[in-house]
Write a structure and sequence with these properties.
Distance between the termini: 38 Å
Structural class: alpha/beta
Low-confidence stretches: none
Helix content: 25-40%
Radius of gyration: 24 Å
Number of domains: 2
Strand content: 25-35%
CATH superfamily of the largest domain: P-loop containing nucleotide triphosphate hydrolases
Strand order of the largest sheet: 6-7-8-3-9-10
Number of helices: 10
Largest sheet: 6 strands, mixed
CATH architecture of the largest domain: 3-Layer(aba) Sandwich
Mean pLDDT: 85
CATH class of the largest domain: Alpha Beta
Length: about 300
């Protein structure tokens, strides 16, 4: 799969001396959903702003569909649709006029049929003649997406698209993003909702303190960095872990009624069969057991925490 965005040696240092980005190298593949995760101030918005031509990089190059964002700005920018965090629209304009005007800004000829299809996809057609200021926050967010899609971009940036919207609207957004991806649009998503990235993304990038610390296929990342926990619900509570179980580094939880064993999913020998045999030999009975794998949120928190600890 070819790269539709290629970033090489990208840095950004502000006049204050803040190093917002440090030697970022990244390729985003055509037709994928790429989720960019990171804590506040990590550099996510700066990176997006540079790609979209809003902020000037200190050094490095960015190619969008083969076009340099500096030397071939118009061609590069025409490939991109951006939905920023802020709800930016003319409060006194109608929904349909807002989408149509944005299309004209990119030199696209009027196409009422296409604008209508975008508004219908976003459940905005029935509100097409409403004034923006009369809409709810969720509807305004949809209008921002309609603006971003009006010039038929091949790449769509969604910067915290579901911030402040209800659960139902978030799921509607997810469905829309999938339809866009299926139509060939490449999606770059930043989000504070880790479950959103876990639900939507094909690949995950984690940025911390201006550095891209990991880029990985979502499933591979969770397999590589995830842990699994085996929880045994004991027949009878115990006051302490019996001698002879030290090799498994167990934890005693829930008032002594649960034994928890954390193991590496990549290990050929997890140690579980031997653990169960040993428990039987020691006469430790359990009435139930279940396993749980680390969520993407736990992996993300661990990655960022380790990076901060390394820097300190």
């Amino acid at each position: 799969m070819r790269a539709i965005i290629s970033i090489s040696g990208l840095t950004k240092t502000y006049a204050s001396g803040q190093h917002a980005l440090k030697n970022v190298n990244l390729e985003i593949r055509e037709g994928e959903i790429f989720a960019l995760l990171g804590p506040n101030g990590a550099g996510k918005t700066t990176l997006i702003s540079i790609i979209c031509g809003i902020v000037t990089a200190s050094s490095g190059t960015v190619l969008v569909d083969g076009h340099d964002i500096v030397t071939d700005y118009r061609a590069a920018r025409s490939r991109i649709g951006l939905v920023p965090q802020e709800l930016v629209a003319d409060a006194f304009e109608t929904v349909r006029a807002t989408a149509g005007f944005s299309r004209g800004l990119f030199g696209r000829a009027p196409n009422p049929g296409y604008v209508e299809s975008v508004l219908r996809d976003l459940s905005l057609w029935d509100r097409r003649n409403d004034i923006i200021m009369t809409l709810s926050g969720g509807m305004k967010r949809r209008v921002m997406i309609a603006k971003a899609l009006s010039h038929e971009p091949r790449i769509l940036f969604l910067d915290e698209p579901t911030a402040g919207v209800d659960v139902e609207l978030r799921r509607d957004m997810w469905a829309l993003v999938r339809r866009l991806r299926d139509s060939g649009v490449t999606i770059i998503l930043t989000t504070h909702y880790i479950d959103e990235a876990e639900e939507m993304a094909d690949r995950i990038g984690v940025i911390s303190q201006g550095e891209l610390i990991v880029v990985e296929d979502k499933i591979r990342l969770m397999r590589k960095l995830g842990k699994k926990q085996l929880t045994l619900h004991l027949q009878d509570p115990m006051a302490s872990i019996p001698a002879g179980l030290e090799a498994w580094k167990l934890a005693l939880n829930a008032g002594g009624s649960e034994l928890e064993y954390t193991f590496d999913t990549n290990e050929e020998q997890t140690g579980i069969p031997a653990l169960l045999r040993r428990l039987s030999e020691l006469g430790v009975a359990f009435k139930d057991l279940h396993t749980r794998q680390s969520s993407l949120e736990e992996i993300f928190v661990n990655l960022v925490s380790e990076r901060k600890g390394f820097r300190q």
